[in-house]
């Protein structure tokens, strides 16, 4: 009996040690992400569960907030040492926050991770000084949305990918009549269009340079849509002007405007006309250089489980994960091989949607911005609207913004 009791006791101790060992191997990761709806949150939770399905010893706890709150809270969390293991990051905000993230180049090289499977421009967008700080899950080139019904009623051929600025301007003029406008322009469209035309507003040192001849020439074109050609309506000096123009497009008041593929899903139920897509107009003498933006996932520098987090973000951006997001219509995948699935779901009712996006991605470049880009865009929103109304020319506008940024 004593032998039996001793055997049972040893077995119990062994079982306890085994349980402790198994528990010690369990890794609990935290992941912070923005969300816009319950459906969004379910999609992200599905991806978190995919990590555990592949790595049973890794559990990912998802925390979500709204888009605006996410960026407000991020520096607060960083300052208080409460960053999650996995931090979601948008390419346009990478210059501001990359110091919070672990560089990935060494891990990529060690694991021979295939970066070539992703659209090159978004890899550039998630990088700073040639160091990658996040694996991307989506990518989106800015394109022109157009009202198919209005264009056909005006007797204008549907615009083909790669169309020129002259063709675009001619169409906008023909569409401007009866109190409606051919094009809806916003101040923040400046950098997107300048890039498309090959005009530079940031110098080789990465500094804002709005007063060089190329940057001013682009500003003259942008301002001229409203001030000279009168094909675009005046807009308020407001950070929300993009929403205003999108609303005017949805209501049929403007026939064309600039946006990204991320807006397709929400637009379908609002616009009461056939929607088409085409590329940004290129300079008549140059190839298109379509800028892209996107988002992805990085590893916080304060994470105590960086190896596990590296495994996790590979799953979150895997072909299977991006296929799932594509089928939900949630994101145009950063992986080129997964993009066709998104076209079939999100862009299936959009005229020439796939062709426009394919052409744009094939002619895409990273969006060049400065580390104080939010402040620059706020000044665009303040100083471009008066110029649209004719109270200031392009040079005055650009010199004013440049001067204020340097203060």
TrEMBL record:
Keyword Transport: yes
Signal peptide: 1-24
InterPro entries in the record: SBP
Keyword Signal: yes
Pfam families in the cross-refs: SBP_bac_8 (PF13416)
Superkingdom, natural source: Bacteria
Keyword annotations from UniProtKB, A to Z: Periplasm, Signal, Transport
PANTHER family membership: MALTOSE-BINDING PERIPLASMIC PROTEIN, MALTOSE_MALTODEXTRIN-BINDING PERIPLASMIC PROTEIN
Family, similarity comment: Belongs to the bacterial solute-binding protein 1 family.
Protein name: Sugar ABC transporter substrate-binding protein
């Amino acid at each position: 009996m004593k032998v039996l009791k001793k055997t049972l006791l040893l077995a119990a101790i062994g079982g306890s040690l085994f349980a402790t060992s198994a528990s010690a191997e369990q890794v609990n990761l935290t992941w912070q992400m923005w969300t816009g709806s319950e459906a969004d949150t379910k999609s992200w939770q599905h991806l978190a569960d995919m990590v555990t399905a592949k790595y049973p010893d890794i559990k990912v706890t998802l925390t979500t907030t709204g888009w605006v709150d996410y960026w407000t809270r991020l520096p607060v969390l960083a300052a208080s040492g409460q960053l999650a293991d996995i931090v979601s990051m948008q390419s346009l905000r990478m210059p501001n926050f990359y110091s919070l993230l672990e560089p990935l180049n060494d891990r990529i090289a060690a694991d021979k991770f295939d970066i070539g499977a992703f659209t090159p421009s978004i890899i550039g967008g998630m990088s700073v000084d040639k160091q990658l700080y996040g694996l991307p899950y989506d990518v989106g080139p800015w394109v022109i949305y157009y009202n198919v019904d209005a264009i056909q009623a005006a007797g204008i051929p549907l615009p083909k990918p790669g169309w020129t600025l002259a063709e675009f301007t001619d169409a906008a003029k023909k569409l401007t009549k009866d109190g409606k406008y051919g094009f809806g322009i916003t101040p923040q469209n400046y950098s997107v269009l300048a890039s498309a035309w090959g005009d530079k507003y940031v110098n080789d040192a990465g500094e804002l340079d709005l007063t060089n001849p190329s940057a001013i020439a682009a500003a003259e074109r942008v301002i001229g849509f409203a001030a000279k050609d009168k094909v675009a309506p005046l807009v308020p000096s407001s950070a929300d002007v993009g929403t205003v123009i999108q609303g005017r497009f949805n209501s049929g008041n403007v026939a064309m405007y600039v946006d990204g593929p991320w807006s397709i899903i929400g637009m379908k139920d609002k616009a009461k006309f056939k929607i088409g897509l085409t590329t940004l107009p290129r300079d008549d003498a140059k190839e298109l250089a379509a800028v892209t933006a996107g988002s992805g996932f990085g590893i916080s520098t304060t994470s105590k489980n960086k190896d596990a987090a590296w495994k996790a973000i590979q799953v979150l951006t895997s072909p299977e994960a991006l296929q799932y997001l594509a089928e939900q219509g949630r994101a145009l995948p950063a992986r080129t091989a997964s993009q066709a699935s998104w076209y079939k779901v999100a862009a299936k009712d959009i005229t020439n949607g796939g062709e426009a996006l394919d052409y744009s991605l094939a002619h895409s470049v990273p969006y060049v911005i400065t580390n104080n880009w939010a402040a620059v865009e706020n000044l665009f929103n303040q100083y471009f609207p008066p110029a649209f109304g004719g109270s200031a020319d392009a040079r005055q506008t650009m010199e004013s913004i440049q001067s204020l940024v340097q203060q």
